[in-house]
C-alpha cells in the first residue's frame, strides 16, 4: 500500500465513485421530479383555469338569463297593471251604460204611464163633454 494520497485504494475509489454516482442520480432524479412536478402543476393550473372559465361562462350566461327574466317579469307586471286599469275603466263604462239603460227604461215606463193617464183623462173629458147637460139659459 502506498502512502500517496493521490492514489487511493481501488475499494475506496469504487465506493467514492458509487457514492458520487448515487448522489448524481439522486440530483438528476430530484431535478427530473421537480421539472415534472412543475409541469404537472402548470397543467393542473391550466385545466383549473379552463374549468373555471367554463364555469364562469355558464354562471355569466345564467346571470344574463336571470336579468332577462327579471326584465320580462317587470314588463309582464306593467302589462298586468295596465290590463287591470283598462278592465276597471271598461267595468265603469259598462256600469254607467247599464244605469243609462235602466234610466231609459224608467223614462219609457214613465212615458207609457203618462200616455195611459192622458188617454184616461181624455176619455173622461170626452165622456163629460158628450153627456153634458146643457146649462139652463138665463131668461131674456
| Number of strand segments | 0
Specify the structural class: mainly alpha
The radius of gyration computed from the alpha-carbon positions, rounded to a whole number of angstroms, is 59 Å
Considering DSSP H and I runs of 4 or more, what fraction of the residues is helical?
Answer: over 70%
User: Spans with pLDDT under 50 lasting ≥5 residues?
Assistant: none
Give the helices and strands as they follow along the chain.
H
Query: What is the mean predicted local confidence, pLDDT?
Result: 87
Instruction: Tell me the major beta sheet.
Output: none
Rough outline? rod-shaped
Portion of residues in beta strands equals under 5%
Distance between the termini: 205 Å
Number of helices: 1
Architecture overview:
With 140 residues, the protein is mostly helical. The chain is built from 1 helix and no strands. The radius of gyration is 59 Å and the shape is rod-shaped. The mean pLDDT is 87.
Topology:
Layout: H1 10-130
In short:
With 140 residues, the protein is an all-alpha fold. It is 86% helix and 0% strand. The protein is built from one helix and no strands.
Give a quick set of tags describing it.
140 residues, mainly alpha, 1 helix, 0% strand, rod-shaped
Amino acid at each position: 500500500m502506498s502512502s500517496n494520497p493521490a492514489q487511493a485504494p481501488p475499494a475506496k475509489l469504487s465506493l467514492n465513485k458509487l457514492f458520487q454516482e448515487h448522489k448524481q442520480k439522486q440530483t438528476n432524479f430530484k431535478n427530473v421530479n421537480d421539472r415534472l412536478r412543475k409541469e404537472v402543476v402548470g397543467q393542473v393550473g391550466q385545466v383549473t383555469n379552463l374549468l373555471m372559465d367554463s364555469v364562469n361562462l355558464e354562471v355569466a350566461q345564467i346571470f344574463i338569463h336571470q336579468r332577462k327574466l327579471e326584465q320580462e317579469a317587470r314588463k309582464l307586471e306593467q302589462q298586468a297593471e295596465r290590463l287591470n286599469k283598462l278592465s276597471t275603466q271598461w267595468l265603469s263604462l259598462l256600469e254607467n251604460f247599464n244605469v243609462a239603460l235602466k234610466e231609459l227604461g224608467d223614462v219609457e215606463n214613465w212615458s207609457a204611464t203618462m200616455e195611459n193617464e192622458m188617454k184616461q183623462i181624455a176619455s173622461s173629458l170626452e165622456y163629460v163633454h158628450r153627456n153634458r147637460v146643457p146649462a139652463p139659459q138665463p131668461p131674456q
